[in-house]
Amino acid sequence: MEANGEASVVPAEAHLVFGDRAEVAATFVATLASHGVERGLIGPREVDRLWDRHVLNSAVLQERVPTGARVIDVGSGAGFPGLPLAIARPDLDIVLLEPMARRVDWLAEVADLLDVSVTVERGRAEEKGVRRRIEAADVVTARAVAPLARLAEWCLPLVRPSGTLLALKGQTAADEIERDRAAVRRLGGGEPKIERCGVGVLATPTTVVAIERVESGAPGVARRRARKKH
């Protein structure tokens, strides 16, 4: 599983982010660079950017996750941000939620290889069966899954009241908030806030939109209450 190029070099930032578990993260990177490419989970062009663009970018999310929290990672795909978060924070109770069977198999295999304690579930966040089956979490994470309003509709039902949805976003974060703020509130979310993770550690900190679950009922409850007032 030896990777070529930059992926095989453990950057100094990895030791800052992962501490004594940096070698576990390195094994994950090496596996992605070989089997991840072979199985179509990442593109060949991403190999030299695995550390900074994917693994470290995901792991610094730990700054916004409380100790011992239950976390649901929606649309885990190749494992982001859930697996780097699990490597960095063994104290967390993490569920990796992924709809595609081949990716579910990959996540289970890699979790076993890395010896990280996660639960892998197949399904979509918007499915009623998934919402009944999976206990709500303190934190729900999502990376490159959907626009903010749709993400809130899918993910907020999986967040406990006063818990937080953490959506990893890019340069469009502020525009998405401006466009979808009202929809997020209708769906039971608080004011979306932009946060930066990895400041002073990563050359490009991770942009996160944080949304607190303020509505205790299911999505749609806020809309029904609003209609009753008129």
From TrEMBL:
Localization, per the record, is:
Cytoplasm
Positions contributing to S-adenosyl-L-methionine binding:
G75, F80, A125, E126, R143
Write down the EC number. 2.1.1.-
GO MF, one annotated term: rRNA (guanine-N7-)-methyltransferase activity
Per the record's keyword annotation, is S-adenosyl-L-methionine included, yes or no?
yes
**The entry's keywords:** Cytoplasm, Methyltransferase, rRNA processing, S-adenosyl-L-methionine, Transferase
| Any one of the GO CC terms | cytosol
Q: Which domain of life is it from?
A: Bacteria
InterPro entries to which the protein is assigned, alphabetical: rRNA_ssu_MeTfrase_G, SAM-dependent_MTases_sf
The record's annotation in HAMAP family points to: 16SrRNA_methyltr_G
Which protein family is named in the record? Belongs to the methyltransferase superfamily. RNA methyltransferase RsmG family.
| NCBIfam families xrefs | rsmG_gidB
Biological role stated in the UniProt entry: Specifically methylates the N7 position of a guanine in 16S rRNA.
Name the record gives this protein: Ribosomal RNA small subunit methyltransferase G
- Organism of origin is Saccharomonospora piscinae
- What's the source species' lineage? Bacteria, Bacillati, Actinomycetota, Actinomycetes, Pseudonocardiales
